Amino acid sequence: MKWFTADLHFAHPFVAALRGYARDGYANDASIKQQAEREHKPLKNCVDWRKHDADIIRSINTYVGEEDELYILGDISSGGTWSVDQAIMRIQNLHVPRKNRHLILGNHELHSSTRTLEKLASVFGEVGRVGITEIRDGWGNNPHTVFLSHYQWREDFTQSKPLGAVSTNWNAPELAEYALPRMNNTLLLHGHTHAYDPLEFGRHHNEINVGLDAWCFEPVNEAELVDNWLHTAVSAV
């Protein structure tokens, strides 16, 4: 079975805070940065980011086993050296083996050094900026080709803010060039926006957000996508 997720953000205290992991007395919103500055504390001391990270690994391991394939569509960390190293330690705790792990690079991996890319390649069987794979229904039938990208369709960068989008850079112009141009009758799986709605850009828009925030902190499998979401997401199948 193929499983998909995105935007894990291991060892990224700010994102962990936005997801409700701020310690008692600290805000679960952007103002936590100012709180930490006023108290002269590192942000990571104000957030239980370790629990955030452990909960993600636990969630993935609950569903994704040794015989499965796991596709992570970007942003496994904040992109800093410490965060990347922490993320790699977490990835090694997944039940799914390295050869079955696939990483699509997100904006937080966009400017990774050669050394960082080597580290990522040590725990992923495949690393790339975009990808393509085939998904099937719960019976292993009804195959559909899907594109994989961290980003929504390029045309969506000029849309009004989708309902529930949390990421402040969801439509940053400098990232649009890395997004795929919209293709009719072709499904795109993506992350990036941190929206809570898998169909944040609307029905029949040929894309599904597979990020953690859109799936209640759980990965989503190919059968769920084909059986329950495909005909709603794609304009023509």
Automatic annotation (TrEMBL):
Residues 3-196 form the Calcineurin-like phosphoesterase domain. InterPro entries: Calcineurin-like_PHP, Metallo-depent_PP-like. GO terms for molecular function: hydrolase activity. SUPFAM superfamilies: Metallo-dependent phosphatases. It comes from the Bacteria. Pfam families: Metallophos. This is Phosphoprotein phosphatase. It comes from Bifidobacterium adolescentis.
